Amino acid sequence: MLTLLAVFPALAATRALADGTSGTLGSGTVGPSELRPGAVSLDKISNLSGARVLGRGLSEGGGVPRELTPADLRRLIDSAESALVSSDRLEAESLSPPAQVQGLFVQGYAVGGDGGAAFYRRSPVEPPHPGKFSTADGGWWELTTLVPQPEMFGALADGVSDDAWSINDALAFADTIELTGEYGVSAPVVLKQGQSLRGLNPVRSGLNLRAANAQVMTDPDASAYSVTLEGLYIDGRNVAETALRFQDNNNNNSGLRNLRIRNFLELGLTIGANSDQLVMDRVDIGPSRAGSPTSVSLRHVGPGPFYATNCSLTSGAGIGLYSSSHCTLVNTRINFFVNGLVRFEPRTRNTFMNLVGPFLENTGFAHAADGVPAGAPVGVLCDGVDDPSGTTSGGIIIESPQKVQAGWASTLFKAANGGMISVDCRLPWEGNTANRDLLAMDVGGTDSGSFIELRGPWSFVDWDEVTTLLRASPQGQGFPVRVDGGNGQHVMWSADFSSAAGWTAAGAASGVTTTAQGLRFNCTGPSAYVRFVLPASVMDRCVGHAVLLRVETSAAGSGPMSKCILLTGAGLTKTAASRAWTAANGYGRRAFHCAMGYVNAAGEAEVRIFGNNDGSVASSAQVTVHSAQLIGFGMDGPLAA
Q: How far is residue 559's CA from residue 621's CA, in Å, rounded to a whole number?
């Protein structure tokens, strides 16, 4: 459709002309195939006899113009009677258009060609939005574009100048705006319910945040239901505290697609409450190497879940992913964070983070140029509510991981204070590659409900890259390390308490006997324990594999007590005693203990069960051992004892 509009020669940008020697156009004759903007106005054509009229629409680009049919020419002339063309809005504001003119086309906002070209229509009253201006005669004109660009509201799009006011004006005019360039932002850009920011792609179009409080955020005072951002970048320029914020109101059914967020100081993306059905896809957050040690690339506080696919969190001075509410992330890469990859803090029971097909790599380090900072970072941490009832509050479930690598971590997995972690272990883990001793697993918070579940034939690619396999606090409602009994997990030994044969008292222990409840012994001072020697016939089958010792105990009496277990032996490495169950945790209750080791060489091993592991404080507790079992990982065949 032709939109070559002209009424006044001084303002005309029309591209119509006559091609032929008998056609006189203004003061000169136009040659064949020549098409110069503004060369002619329709009211300057004095003679069309024997001539062809050529032209093109404003959107038809360059090249040889096409011949206009009589119908084309009629539409062009009709348009010229009802619309004007102006080089910019300032010039348009100086006009006093005749009443029959119902449209104004401006070729730029401040200067023609600055990207702010737009069509305006006459309005009988002042429009209630920023997409308007008035002409010299007092008439009002409003923007007709359904999906405007910030340039139509004065944005310079040079990546430096503050275009926040232009972007917010555009959002006050339309629910969807298009970002086609790079925009400097020195104040918050605020999205309201149902609004969208849409870029061309996250490499070439986006926002450069140039002040500490500059950010993209949802309306803090109203629902932000169904907000969308896609195809753009948000760059904090190592100045902005937060890049993208969803407030603590209704964020339901919002969507983030094909975004890149980087160079923020504290928060890359923070998601507040009521985020049901907030969906993310192909969101790349990082790097943020200049951020603070407390910075978080993706922070989700809930209540309300979110769902993410094909995302990447990478290279930060703090942690990668934090959540305290339900969430699911599929095929997400989380790597190179100084203070941890994942931190989950469920605040209510039965609250879970689901990581499906994650790529977990390199804790304690962001980039080679930054060096390795001091500290004791944890790769994946679930820190629960610490319910006094000892009930598990929630946890992290990891399915089909693509990679599990510690890198420079102090601890790879830690479940504490009622938190749990369940890991699909079909893929071997990778340990430390550098300067820190690595603890593979830590279950913290005695009687808090914490545990780690290993599903499958758990192993490391290189056992030399891990220092200690497990430090575990005893629990009151199940073992701190649990197994699913699946492929690659085998019971290598189970204690037979039909008699006390093989069990001997050591230290200040005495009176070893059996009852219907199990093995019983008395503590008569500090460091009281019983011991059992696991024969080489058991241990030799475990060479090159990890083993887990699980023991269930209870105690009667009063006064000091410090129950724990230890697996030791010349062929065992990477071991540590379990943490203690003390009098503060209660007499008369079942306690579940775990310890692990790596069988490096053949030979006997020893099980030690302490009623009191305090070397300076005496105990008079009577301890009953209800069960003891050794489980091997990663071995083929039915090796159950």
A: 8
The two three-digit tokens of residue 14, written as one number: 């029309």
Sign of CA dihedral 38, 42, 44, 48: positive
The pLDDT assigned to 372 comes to: 82
Q: Where are the beta strands (DSSP E) in 350-478?
A: 351-356, 359-363, 378-383, 394-399, 403-407, 411-416, 419-424, 430-432, 439-444, 451-455, 468-472
Please report, to the nearest 10 degrees, the dihedral formed by the alpha carbons of residues 568, 570, 571, 575 taken in order: 30
CA–CA separation, 295 and 45 (whole Å): 68
Q: Quote helix, strand, coil % in the chain, to nearest 5.
A: 10, 45, 50
Minimal CA–CA distance to 362: which of 382, 383, 387, 340? 340
3-state SS string for 191-212: ECCCCEEEECCCCCCEEEECCC
pLDDT of residue 39: 38
Report in angstroms the alpha-carbon separations of 544 from 113, 136, 264, 427, 566. Answer: 72, 89, 45, 17, 20
φ, ψ (nearest 5 deg) of residue 18? -110, 140
Cβ(341)–Cβ(320) below 8 Å: yes
Q: Scan for tokens 């000892």, then name that residue.
A: 390
> Measured in whole angstroms, how far is the alpha carbon of residue 119 from the centre of its chain?
41
Give the C-alpha separation, 345 to 396, whole Å. Answer: 10
CA dist 296 and 212 (Å) reads: 16
CA 407-340-358 angle, 5° bins: 75
Burial of 70 (0-12, 13-18, 19+ CB in 10 A): exposed
Residue 505 class from Cβ within 10 Å (0-12 exposed, 13-18 middle, 19+ buried)?
A: middle
Length of the chain: 641
φ, ψ for residue 152, nearest 5 deg = -70, -10
C-alpha count within 13 angstroms, C-beta hemisphere, residue 276:
3
- For β-strands 228-235 and 296-300, DSSP reports them as unpaired
In a 3-state reduction of DSSP, which class is residue 73? helix
Residue whose C-alpha is closest to residue 610's, from 569, 571, 578: 578
List the one residue out of 338, 401, 407, 417 whose CA is nearest residue 373: 338
pLDDT value, residue 119: 93
- Strands 468-472 and 312-316, by their bridges, are unpaired
Closest CA to 624 of 577, 578, 589, 579: 589
What pLDDT is recorded for position 221?
81
* Other beta carbons within 10 Å of 514: 17
Q: Which residues contact 455 (CB under 8 A, 6 or more apart)?
A: 422, 423, 424, 425, 483, 484, 486
pLDDT in tens, 80-128: 556 788 889 989 999 999 988 899 999 999 999 999 999 999 999 999 9
* Angle at the Cα of 419 from the Cα atoms of 287 and 366, rounded to 5 degrees: 15
Read off the tokens for 6: 């002209």
DSSP one-letter string for 416-431: ETTEEEEEE-SSPBEE
Model confidence pLDDT, tens digit, residues 427-468: 999 998 777 899 999 999 999 999 999 998 899 999 999 999
Peptide bond into 480 cis (omega under 30): no
DSSP characters over 129-172: SSSEEE-TTS-EEEE--SS--GGGGT---EEEEE-HHHHHHHHH
The answer to whether residues 264 and 294 touch, using CB atoms and an 8 Å cutoff, is: no
Cβ-count burial of 507 within 10 angstroms (0-12 exposed, 13-18 middle, 19+ buried)?
A: buried
